[in-house]
């Protein structure tokens, strides 16, 4: 008797999901024509109405499976187009709605084939001398945060889209806005952790932008770069160690203790965990030993502890 009862429950749940999806489709379909109007104000009002509808759809207890269909079919392609809307306010609302939708969708990974090229197109500069396609600094930060969310939700499913992700990150790491660079560093590290089986094929292309940013005037950016470099090389190509050693050595003389602490921790982490660490012992060991004489007791303690763990 248990099996028929379970089947009835499943059937009832399926009907409820279908009904919720149909209701959401009707609600969205009434609002979507407003996105096509020539009026900037009209598009903005349509987006604001969609924002209200989405916030209702993502309320606690709402069915994410029922949301998936209308989101992927009706909203996602239109919102991606609006990322290049002439009006900054409309672009910002579109990015916010994409964030809401990704968080609520039952299968956020399904959005990656369309989302990643769209984000890359708004962040990556066709030529280094030209400004980013998205002119607003705050909105570029939002787009990199959206990329970070996609990495967190997509995990290993990002692997086929590494080209687009890395292209966007290379631009973010050289962005004029310091907050975009920091978010780009965190996103690069997250991407490395999310795609360990494939990331090594792309990791070296991030080292150049990271090293161009390692001497940034903001110390928090310098710390973010050092920590991201540690993760990018840990999950990427060990060959890049040679490309960063001189930059790391310079940061051991940084005026800010947090920067020197970051170098010490990353170098010690490589000596412990890098796959081909024994090939680099003679190059990494002097950097760790340099921290033994740092003026800050905390850095000396970190270096000593790592040295003991490495067992040299």
Automatic annotation (TrEMBL):
Domain of life: Eukaryota
GO molecular function: dynein intermediate chain binding
GO cellular component entries: cytoplasm
An annotated GO BP: inner dynein arm assembly
Pfam families according to UniProt: TPR_DNAAF5
Domain (Dynein axonemal assembly factor 5 TPR repeats): residue spans on this chain: 35-312
SUPFAM superfamilies: ARM repeat
PANTHER family given in the database record: DYNEIN ASSEMBLY FACTOR 5, AXONEMAL (PTHR16216), DYNEIN AXONEMAL ASSEMBLY FACTOR 5 (PTHR16216:SF2)
Protein name: Dynein assembly factor 5, axonemal isoform 1
Taxonomic lineage: Eukaryota, Metazoa, Chordata, Craniata, Vertebrata
